[in-house]
Amino acid sequence: MRRPVPSSRLRPGASRGAPLLRLRVGFVLIAMVLSFFGARLVQLQGVDPRSYAAMAAAEGAVKIPLLAERGDILDRNGVPLADSIQGKMVIADPSLTAAQAPAIARLLSDALSIDYFKALTALKGRKEGSRFEYIARRVPSTLASDTLKAIDAAGYDGVSLQDDPIRDYPAGDVAANLLGYMGTDEPLGGFERTFDKQLAGVDGQATWQSNSRKGVRIPLRDSTIKAAQDGKPLTLTIDRDLQWFVQKVLAQSVDQYRAESGAAAVLDTRTGEVLALADYPTFDANRPSEAKKDDLGSRAMNDAYEPGSVEKVLTASSLIDAGKAFPRQRFKVPPNLARQDRVIGDWFDHGDIRLTLAGIIAKSSNIGTVLAADAFTPPELVDYLKRFGLGQRTDIGVRGESSGLLTTGDAMTSQTKDRVAFGQSLSVNVMQMAAAVNTVANGGIRVSPSIIAGSAVTDDGVTVGTDTATRTRVVSKKAARGTAKMMEKVVDPEDGVAPGAQVPGYLVAGKTGTAQRVVDGVYDGSTSVSFGGFAPADDPRFTVYVVIHRPMVDGGGGSITGPVFSRIMGYVLGRYGVEPTNGKPSRLPVEW
Amino acid sequence: MSSPALQTRTRVTRIAQEAVDKARLTVVPRVRTRAPRVPFVTLVSAVLVAGIVGLLLFNTSMQQASFSASSLEKEADTLAARQQTLRMELDELRDPQRLAQQAQQMGMVIPPAPVFLDLETGKTIGVRTPATPENAIRLDPPPPPKPKILQPDPTVVQVPATASTASTKTTGQQGNQQGKKNRDR
């Protein structure tokens, strides 16, 4: 044993000789430390164990949203009118990019064709201390990753990509008014919005643990994948190429006659399927922000207008069906007709002329129609028109459809009835009128029109589509055939007013219309010119209806819309391989 | 050791030896076979080492697989994106507008009425109407109107009529369209 060092004995208060005290101090210290541990244990396990467990799981967890692919919108042949492709958003972290902002901005603006200065502002950060800025959205995936590679190669940091699907409309403005368009994150119009539930699908998510910045999975650790449910495609009855053609022909005529707008519809007579429904002016669905707001919807469906003389077809076939008139019935038509409150005139000056009912239709005489319709009481006429589908929405699935206006039978005065008989004082939308003319073409049976193939549910919960199409008899087959024979006379070069609507080689039946337009509650002198008809007249396959609003060049339904009708009808007959029927033309007399 | 066994051999001739032997209990010698330790230790160590190395390799290979899965996934994404981009390009090439423009440039027009050719008889069905340049449809929208500054109102200068000069007007270019007579309704 060594002797204790003398110096330690000299130190006062040295506790080396008091083991008990040392032991106690030690115990107290240990007890304090353990009580801290105990308190922490209670805190972790007793107070809020779940949030700590979640925090532990979140440490190193990678969550990747799996974006559902939006369903395509297809035409009747399966050609995409709208499709989704993978895209990326290019984002920047200004804390990393601000220093080299000009150089990165030049690279990005060259590669992505975006504005240099906007890119520069984003890279520098729009706000102080910002860590997230959009540089470009909806960039095609390949272009985006190529650009990112170039940026990495140049040695810049802070630019990254995130998924951002692109909605592409390959044919631009074809059927844009029906399809609608997408906003930044949600659909803003048309079928995109109406059938969003079906198209959108449900996003999924993948979660796994990772310990690297690149997000590589740690094997055997928690990893869950909830797969995305892609949206279902929506198939239309529209024929893309036909729709394109109709839009082009319509646009040409609207511009040629410096008109305000125009619309055209092509229906399959037997099934009521809408093969084309065109509007002009229209817009490019890929660039909706560049179009006027008024052009974004479907005027054909949303705007009601007075149909004018095309409606005489409905009056005449109703009269024949009710047994109150027949095509060869003779009428003496005076130069003008004084009715209770006003004088009714014709568009052409004439003395006392003698026309048959066929002649009244062929020459489009208002006076003659009023005289013929005298056989009807207002409720009788309104009842027929309702069955033709006027005054109620067609509900084909287009948003904001106008129901048009049709005064109820008991509220209708005889003056109003006179005007309704030749197509004024009531209003319709394009689809209503096309379906009504189609009823005559289809032998008196009205097929409810449809634009969705199969069936689909709108955001209002209405099921629409060809599966729900209904067929109702409106007039007898005989009445419909008789009316068709009279309508053939309209395009007769001798007797009719619209020889321009003929399709060489085919029997065509049609009717012109030139209606006064109501603007802000008054007739302002402008007109809506229209033409509705079908071919081949003796075995109708297609119904075409064209209307042009407010042409600035003098003309009527025959001269302005007749040639448009002829062009569209000629194309659709050829496209669907409908051969001429070689039927005998109508030999109804127009005069007596 | 083997000494008890030797003792029993020497007393073989005793009478009632069997009974005596039965009555007497002897200590069974502890048989100790000393197995060589080295192979066992080596084996255990080898198993241990193999296990650890195997686990390590297995882990490494799983990690490796995870890396390659990641990179393959990335590649699949890239290829899918490429495929979609190509599909989009294809759709754009199929755009009726583009086809019509090319066809019209080649001098083709859409005829006003169809004519059918019966291949068996060689006869045509329908009225043969010539397709002329007038049948061409306008494919591109009209150019947007020029701003006012590029298309000023025509300047009209009224020159007082004198005996020698008739009044002259300078007018800018104006497209005029012939209005058709309103002959039908």
Automatic annotation (TrEMBL), chain A:
**Where does it mainly reside?**
membrane
Penicillin-binding protein transpeptidase domain residues are: 262-569
Q: Where in the cell is it found?
A: Membrane
InterPro entries, per the entry: Beta-lactam/transpept, Beta-lactam/transpept-like, PBP_dimer, PBP_dimer_sf, PCN-bd_Tpept
Q: What would be one Pfam family of this protein?
A: PBP_dimer
TM ranges: 21-42
Q: Which PANTHER family match?
A: PEPTIDOGLYCAN D,D-TRANSPEPTIDASE, PEPTIDOGLYCAN D,D-TRANSPEPTIDASE FTSI
Family (UniProt): Belongs to the transpeptidase family.
Protein's UniProt name? Penicillin-binding protein 2
Source organism = Nocardioides hwasunensis
TrEMBL record, chain B:
Q: Which domain of life is it from?
A: Bacteria
Keywords of the record: Membrane, Transmembrane, Transmembrane helix
Return the Low complexity bias intervals.
Answer: 161-179
- Give the start-end ranges of region Disordered: 128-185
Q: Where does the sequence pass through the membrane?
A: 38-58
Name used for this protein in its record:
Cell division protein FtsL
Q: Which organism is it from?
A: Nocardioides hwasunensis
